[in-house]
Each structure stands twice: as structure tokens, then as C-alpha cells.
Write a structure and sequence with these properties.
272 residues, alpha/beta, 8-stranded parallel beta barrel, binds 3-methyl-2-oxobutanoic acid
Length: 272
């Protein structure tokens, strides 16, 4: 049975803030196309993230780095056409915001204008704060992303848990406060110790959304293809699979192939 807050007509950043204030958990999932976004929105999700994980899940790249701004806009506009209720947040892809706040602003404006999305997300703390300030000053809501930030995979060298050491944990706490201060409406924290995520969440008024960050956060996000078991060989500890669609789809396709080969499809009733 769904416990989604379907009484809310349209989820906005203000609705999310009041959900945190009222201790209501926030649900978030990725989507990259019209059909999946429609199912997820109708199920009552609060936020759809058009994640740059599209680079892995949709395009088959090893990392999130290759996806382009044009490709993100294509995915986001497909999602937006499906959505009636949830907030749609779109990742600014690698290379579209780092190091130059004017470039960041132009990228965010392109996403908002060309896809109709409601907000953008970008990775990093103090080092991208000028970009975040400039985007927010143009009226575009920004969600932060700290902890494991996959666009920096070649700096980290591994997808392992971040901020286990005191120095990195301290920087993450400071970055979280800074992101709130400069106006981010929410913060994703990826693959960090649960205790740290709890401390950060308690220190903030803006909602935190965890992925591999334990239960003491304001909401959870997963990649929908992982949750649905469409991806098969990805088993991080934080992932709970709610379906095994890889197998369901595979056996449906095998069934179809057999029916075609045996002449069982189409039947007399399935022709004109
Ligand atoms: O791109 C993505 O899917 C993400 C989530 C893992 C938070 O950023």
C-alpha cells in the first residue's frame, strides 16, 4: 500500500521544507524517460531526479563523466512531459558548471528553459559555491550533493564510502552548512557513514536525502533501474531490490521469441 502524500497537488521546494519541519520522510528516485517517469510519478514519488547516472544506466558508459548537457536536456524534457505531481531535479553534467560560474549559470538556464525542469543538482561544496550562488541568484533552485560525488571518481580512485576520516567528515559538515547558507533547498549525501549523515541532518534546516547514508536523513534516493532489478550485477550494501525485472523481461522476451518461431504468434484473434 502506498503511503505517498498524494493529497499534495504539486511537490515544490517549499513542500519539501515543510515535510522536513513536520518530520515526514521524502522519497526520491531517478528517471530518464517518459514511460518510467509516468509510472513513478503516478505511484506518488516526491522527487524525480534526472540523474547523470543516465550515463551508466541509459548509455552504458562506465562513469557519469561522458554525458553531455544536450543529452541531459533530452532526458529531462522526456521526464517533464510525463510528470504531473512530483518535483523534477536535473543533474548538471560534468564540465557544465565547475570552475566558471557564468558557464554554470548558462548550463542551468539551458536546462530550465529547454526541458521545463524545476531545479538542478550539482556535486561539491565550497569549491563550487560561486557557481551555486550565481545559479540561485537567477531564480533557479539548487540541490547540493556531498560525500561520494561520482563526477570526481578519477580523483577518488574508488567508489568506496567517503568521509570515514575526521578531516573529510569535518569538511563535509562545513560544506553542508555552507550549501544551506548560500541557498540550496536540499542536499543529497551519498555513501557516507550513517552517524555522520545523522549529525549533518540534525544541523540543517534544509532536507537531506541519503543514498547509502543510513536512516537518519530526511529522505532516500535510489537509481530506479537498481531498485527494480533491471541492472543485475550491482549489489552495494545500501541497495534494496523491490523487483527482479531483468528476469521478468528476459523470460517474457524468450517466450515471445518461442511463439514467433513456433508460429504461435500471432493467433487468428491477433490479426485483421
Ligand atoms: O545521478 C544520480 O543518479 C545521482 C544519485 C545517485 C543521487 O546523483
Amino acid at each position: 500500500m502506498s503511503t505517498a502524500k498524494k493529497d499534495v497537488k504539486r511537490v515544490t521546494t517549499h513542500v519539501l521544507a515543510s515535510m522536513k519541519a513536520q518530520n515526514q520522510k521524502i522519497s526520491m528516485l531517478t528517471a530518464y524517460d517518459y514511460s518510467m517517469a509516468k509510472i513513478i510519478d503516478e505511484a506518488g514519488i516526491d522527487i524525480i531526479l534526472v540523474g547523470d547516472s543516465a550515463s551508466n544506466v541509459m548509455a552504458g558508459h562506465e562513469t557519469t563523466l561522458p554525458i553531455t548537457l544536450d543529452q541531459m536536456i533530452y532526458h529531462a524534457s522526456s521526464v517533464i512531459r510525463a510528470v504531473k505531481r512530483c518535483l523534477v531535479v536535473v543533474d548538471l553534467p560534468f564540465g557544465s558548471y565547475q570552475g566558471n560560474s557564468k558557464v554554470a549559470l548558462d548550463s542551468a538556464i539551458r536546462i530550465m528553459k529547454e526541458s521545463g525542469a524545476h531545479a538542478v543538482k550539482l556535486e561539491g561544496g565550497e569549491e563550487v559555491s560561486e557557481s551555486i550562488k550565481r545559479i540561485i541568484s537567477a531564480g533557479v533552485p539548487v540541490m547540493g550533493h556531498l560525500g561520494l560525488t561520482p563526477q570526481s571518481i578519477y580523483k577518488f580512485g574508488t567508489y568506496t564510502v567517503r568521509a570515514k576520516e575526521e578531516m573529510e567528515a569535518q569538511k563535509l559538515k562545513e560544506d553542508a552548512l555552507l550549501l544551506q547558507k548560500i541557498g540550496c533547498f536540499g542536499l543529497v549525501m551519498e555513501k557516507i557513514p550513517a552517524t555522520l549523515a545523522g549529525v549533518v541532518t540534525a544541523s540543517l534546516e534544509i532536507p537531506t536525502i541519503g543514498i547509502g547514508a543510513g536512516a537518519d536523513v530526511d529522505g532516500q534516493v535510489l537509481v530506479s533501474h537498481d531498485l527494480l532489478g533491471i541492472t543485475k550485477d550491482f549489489h552495494p550494501r545500501f541497495l534494496r531490490r523491490y523487483a527482479e525485472l531483468h528476469d521478468v523481461i528476459g523470460s517474457a522476451v524468450e517466450h515471445y521469441i518461442n511463439d514467433v518461431k513456433n508460429g504461435d504468434f500471432p493467433s487468428a484473434k491477433e490479426q485483421y
